[in-house]
Amino acid sequence: MSNSKKLSDWRLHLQDELDACYLYRILTDLEVDPKQRKLYSDLANIEQKHAEAWMHLLKSENVSFSDQPTTKARFQAWLAQNIGPGFLSRAQLKE
Q1: Quick one: three-class SS letters along 6-63?
Q2: 48: nearest Cα among 61, 75, 67, 34
Q3: Roughly what angle, to the nearest 10 degrees, separates helices 3-30 and 86-94?
Q4: Distances (CA, A) of 94 to 68, 87, 90
């Protein structure tokens, strides 16, 4: 694998983790059941740690990256907040 392909893959992995973390935090905020709320919060924290690991690797290679969720993730969050979180929770837990 070329170095540029490797770094591109690392960026994609980071973005996946950032999006998952963001969406789990949205689900945490929307959830009323304390057990489910804790589950989503724990999953968000795990995804955050994964994202931090990818950020560390990218920084060590002097590679720039975004630390923001994608437009797709923000749209999914908007849907969950305005229509209901059901589809989002099923989609996230399938991961």
Answers
A1: HHHHHHHHHHHHHHHHHHHHHHHHHCCCHHHHHHHHHHHHHHHHHHHHHHHHHHHCCC
A2: 67
A3: 140
A4: 22, 11, 6
How is residue 54 written in tokens? Answer: 């990818």
Distance CA 76, CA 43 (A): 17
* CB-CB contact of 51 with 3 (8 Å): no
Span 19-78, pLDDT tens digits: 999 999 999 999 999 999 999 999 999 999 999 999 999 999 999 999 999 999 999 999
What amino acid occupies position 37?
R
